Every structure is written in structure tokens, then in C-alpha cells.
Amino acid sequence: MTTPSVVGIDLGTTFSLAAYVENGRPVVVRDEKGDALIPSAISFHDDGTVLVGSAARDRALSDPEHTIFSVKRLMGRTLKDLERELKLIPHQIVEREMEGGRKVLRVDIAGHEHTPEELSAMILREVRKRAGNPTRAVVTVPAYFDDSQRQATRDAGRIAGLDVLRIVNEPTAAALAYGLDRRGSGTVAVYDLGGGTFDCSVLTLSEGVFKVLSTNGDTFLGGDDFDRTIMELVAGEMGVDLGRRDPELLQHLRDAAERAKIALSAAETAELRVSIPGGAADPGAAAPKSGRDGRAPREFRRAISRTEFEALIRPLVDRSIDKCKSALKDAGLTPGQVDEVVLVGGSTRVPYIRRRVGEFFGKTPHSELNPDEVVALGAAVQADILTSGRRDLLLLDVVPLSLGIETLGGVVDKLIHRNTTVPCRATTRYTTAADNQTAILINIYQGERELTKDCRFLGTFKLSGIPPMPAQFAQVDVTFLADQNGILTVSAKEQRSGAQAQVTVQAAHGLTVAEVDQLVVDSIENAQADFTARKLIELRNKAEADLRHTAKALAQAGDRLTPDQRGLIDTTAAALRAAIPGTDLGGLQQAIDAFVAAANPLAQLLMNEVVRHTLAGTAAGDLAEKKL
Ligand code: ADP
Ligand code: MG
Fold first, then answer.
1. Which atom of ligand 1 has the smallest separation from the CA of 196?
2. Percent of the chain with pLDDT over 70
3. CA–CA separation, 310 vs 338, rounded Å?
């Protein structure tokens, strides 16, 4: 593989991968086994090693408390946002208050705290490594990601050493992968069912301009739920209580369920096969008294048909179709007005899903490309467009939620309305409420509701330096600017005095630019520090072993050395002993080299000695035999 200089990255909840354009065509990055998907899992170990990808996922079975999944759910969120997510993540999540009241989320994994940005950066670094360490990337996010979630994704990229050229919506990337932009105009619906999330987005294309019209979904609907329905079926028949907190048992059931589900995408029937360590499956032993130890593993086998599976997942699929209806309604369209339908996400490999989506929209959905690779392929196309300059394409996304500021009485005044195409700018004039007010605080909110208490607080800043004036005299223009990436900047200017707030919006949570910079520096410095620490330990061990061996040899044959040879060994040994506690790698290496060189005559001497002894020993043995 040639090393691409720029890649497209799909940073997924369950799987992540990269793609790049080669000879004008997007291709996904694969490992030597041909695998493209990297599980979005990280596992930490006591000795400091960190595993990412399949190795981490394999580890989860035996060591769940050191492994984390679904980091994407935490990106750009506050503890308050995460009520439902917390149940899925078996780690303690804490919120640290930083200066200015800003909050930073941290996940405690085996006694170490990590921000979601750092964790996602570990996944991105793995994806990057597999692609040959490119330095530039386009990274995708769901269309419903808000400002802080996009910002967090961008920060994760930076921490991973990537220059993130653009944050692109996943449905837009999928449409690009199919080259639908070349149609010129039309309407595209993207149905994305992944591991744990579902969304449906409606895009339009007119005169080469792509725009997300609407998006709707459920962040708790995905392939994991399909697995769950099978797990419940099996558990019921085996007499196993799924509510029991037994991670190993659950993992076995989950594996078996997912395997059967995947098999059913290709065959009419599949075998469900569960082997549970220690006989937990014994229906007669509903409440084992002393654990499962010492009992033989229990085997459970059963065939499952496609029809049976379809009946199980039907209510879940119905829910997804309802969301498609809502997305179309928001876009002001009927199913018949959609020209192209694109399937995204591993779960759309299920034939029943294809059928239901096809029926709903009244046309066969695109499924020619691998549904779990299509987003990365589209991101690669976008990356290529941005860097090669060969083709012009305008990608227009929309603001997913209305943006505004707090005005008197806790009311949100919306400057930019939901589904407005980005980039966009809006300015509104405000005034002061009190006499001689020299500063105003601008609080920024996001959401559809009227009152600040029902919306999401995004950030705040102060416009000061307003000259004293009677109330209602000042004229403060507040400007919102949402850029190509959907990232918001807010500025304010008082017109009479020219006072201007230099500060742009500072997210109420997440990392500051300086903190991200520090993390970037830390990861580089630590990489060096980690290496130095390991090397130092290795050298110290070697120095001590050399000193020990030489002391032993001196005791045996030291008297046969010349005084000069002996003196040199003593002085270099003293210098080496002095160098061991230090941290100067080069100095320690030199001291070892000098000592080894000084001890060389002794080693020679002893080697000859060994040879002579061996010969003498043989001779003595011979003699003894003769004596008898
Ligand atoms: P993400 O949620 O990260 O976007 P993917 O789009 O890769 O993840 O989807 C992962 C889901 O797809 C998992 O639930 C997995 O079990 C499911 N999946 C993968 N292959 C198949 C298949 N052949 N049949 C049914 N489901 C599949
Ligand atoms: Mg996905």
C-alpha cells in the first residue's frame, strides 16, 4: 500500500476505519488479514500498555473493568446529558469543574482518568497508524452532532496528531461515496443503522450543492438491540436470568447471539450455540449457591430461522421507520419524492431491513458498497476534493438545533434557526436594561424551547468597556457565525462606543484550546519519556548484572591480572556504580561500555581457564580410572 497523505476517517461508536483515494478511486485501509473495521475499544493494563481495536475487544471478556467501548457517546457531553449512556458504560464518569465554571468530563478506568477526547484520540491514532501515519484527515460525525460534539471530535483529531481539514456529516459522506453528487440535482435519504445508534437523514442536491434538509433518529437503537432480542430468547429457554450481574455469562450469550444474527444475513437458518462455563444453564439450579466453579460447562444448541429472527426485531425496525417518517416530514417531503435511498451501517446487511426500507420509500436502496465502509469511502472522497483541487464541490450542512442568546427573564432569543444551511451568519441588535451598565454578559443557548432552563447552555462571554449611558441607549450587535463545520463563533460590538468583545464563544464544557495543545505536547513528550524510562531500566539491569559477574570473576582470577588491568577495572566499576542511579541514558551507556572494555582481559583469562580446566578434568578422570 502506498502511504496516503490525507485520509477520510469514520470514527464510529462500535467500529472505526480509514479510506483514501488512489488513482481517482476511494479504497478502504485494510490490515494484513484484510480487515478494515477496527473495533472502537480501548483496554488499559497495569504495566502501562494500552491496547486498541480487536486486541482490546478480545480482552473485554476476561477484563471488563480495564476496557472501554462506545466513547463516541461521551464526546462533547456533560454528565447531565448522559443519564441513559451511563448505564451502558461500566466505568465511573466524573465531571471536573475548571476555571470559569467550565466542566470537563473524565472517565475513570482502573484508577486513571481520561477525557473522552483523549480516548477517541487513542482510537484515531490506531486508525492513523494502520493507514501509514498520514497527518491530514477528514473526520465524519452524525448529522445530529451539536457544536460541542463536533468540537470534541476535532480536538480528538488534534490530540492524535491529525490536522482535521473538515468535519463532515456521515450521511453526506455516504451520498458522496455513491457519487450521487454527480446527479446534479435530486433528493437522497440515508438510512444508517449501526451497532448502537440509528439515524435517517434527508439531503438535497441542487446545482452541485449538497444540503442536509433534516435528520432524525434514535441514539439507542442498533444492532446491539437485535443481539439483545436473541439473548433474551436464549436466556428464557435456558432458564438463565439476564438481570444477574455476570459479565462473563452475558458476554458469552452476546457473542452467540451476534454470530447467529450475522449468519442469518446470508442463510435462512442459523445455529445458536452457547457454551457456558460452569453449568449456569442448568434450569434446576436457578440460584447456584456457590458459584459455577467445579461444574462442567453447559452446552445449549438451537436452530433459529430468519422468519423467527424477523419477528423478534420487527418492533425495533418499526421504530426506525417511524423516525424516517419524521425526517421526511421535517424536510417537507413524501417518500415518493425521494430519488435515491442509501443504506449505511453494518446492521443494514440484515435482509429484512433492506426489504422494509425499500417498501417504505418505494424503491430499492443502494447497497452496492459495503454499508460499514461507505462513510469512510465518502470521507476519503471529500478529503481528496479538499486537497487535490481537481473537483469543485460545495457541501452544505445545516445547524441541527436553533442557536440563540439569553435575554431578560430567561428567554432565549434565537438568532439562527434549526436546519439553516451552514455557513451562516446572523446579527441582532440588543440594548442595556439598566442605567450606566458598562458590561453585558452574553449567554449562548441551543435548543428549540423558549426558556433557557429548557435549552442547552453552550457558553458565555462578557462585553465590557461600554461607556456609562442611560438604559436602552447602548446598541449592542451580537453576531453568530456557524462555519462549514457547524462550529459556532459569537461576537458582540457596541455601536456607539465601538466597544467590542474579542472573545469568541467558549464552550461551557469540553477542553480549551490551551488544554488540547497541552495534551498534544504531553502525548509527544510522554512518548519520549516512556521510551527513556524503559531504556533506562534496561541499561540499569545490564549494568548491575555486569558488575555482579565481574566481581565473581575477579574473586576467581583477579590475582592473575596485571596491576594496570586490575586498576582499570576498579575505576570503571566505581564510575559505573555512580552512573546507575542517574537518568542520563547516554552517560550510563558509556560507563557500561568502558567497564566492559576494562573487564575484557579478565573475561579472556577466564575463558582460557575454563578450557584448561576442562582438559585437566578429563586427564584427572582418566588417571583415576587407571588407578582402579
Ligand atoms: P457503528 O455503530 O460504529 O457505525 P457499524 O456500522 O460497523 O458500526 O455496525 C456495527 C453493527 O453491524 C454491529 O451490531 C454488527 O453486529 C452489525 N453487523 C455487521 N455485519 C452484519 C451482518 N452481516 N448482518 C447483520 N448485522 C451485522
Ligand atoms: Mg457508523
1. 2
2. 84
3. 26
Least confident interval from 38-42, 134-138, 332-336, 438-442: 438-442
Q: pLDDT at residue 459 above 60?
A: yes
For residue range 543-595, list pLDDT tens digits in order: 888 898 888 888 888 888 999 999 999 999 999 999 998 888 889 989 999 99
Distance, in Å, from the CA atom of 225 to the CA atom of 405, rounded to the nearest integer, reads 39
| pLDDT tops 60 at residue 27 | yes
Please report which ligand is nearest the Cα atom of 174. 2
Domain span(s) for CATH 1.20.1270.10 in the chain: 527-627
CB 358 within 8 A of CB 348: no
The better pLDDT of the pair 298, 443 is held by: 443
Closest residue by Cα to residue 222 from 345, 368, 314: 345
Ligand (nearest to CA of 173): 2
Q: What is the Å distance from ligand 1's center to 226 Cα?
A: 10
Look up residue 527 and give its three cell numbers.
512518548
What's the fold here for domain 403-512?
A: Substrate Binding Domain Of DNAk; Chain A, domain 1 (2.60.34)
Ligand 1: atom nearest CA of 371 is 6
Tell me which amino acid residue 10 is. D
Pairing, β 456-463 against β 440-446 = antiparallel
| Ligand 1 atom closest to 14 (CA) | 3
249 vs 229, residue with greater confidence: 229
Would you say 151 and 21 are in contact if contact means Cβ atoms under 8 Å apart? no
Q: How far is CA 101 from CA 98, 459, 460, 513, 516, in A?
A: 6, 10, 10, 16, 18
Segment among 88-97, 180-189, 337-346, 619-628 with least mean pLDDT: 619-628
How far is the centre of ligand 1, averaged over its atoms, from the C-alpha of 313 (Å)? 15
Q: Whose CA is nearest to atom 18 of ligand 1?
A: 346
Nearest ligand (C-alpha, residue 259): 1
Say how many Å lie between the CA of residue 243 and the centre of ligand 1.
25
Comma-separated ranges of CATH 3.90.640.10 domains in the chain: 223-313
Task: Return the CATH fold of 6-222+314-396.
Answer: Nucleotidyltransferase; domain 5 (3.30.420)
Report the 10 Å Cβ neighbour count for 411.
13
Nearest to 119, CA basis, from 169, 69, 84: 69
> Maximum distance among all alpha carbons in the chain?
126
Q: Which three three-digit cell numbers place residue 10?
A: 469514520
Residues forming the active site: 10, 72, 170, 192
Is the per-residue pLDDT at 18 higher than 90? yes
The residue whose CA has the least distance to atom 6 of ligand 1 is: 345
Ligand 1: list residues with CB < 6 Å: 12-15, 37, 194-197, 222-224, 258, 261-262, 265, 345-347, 349-350, 372
User: Cell digits for 287?
Assistant: 440460584
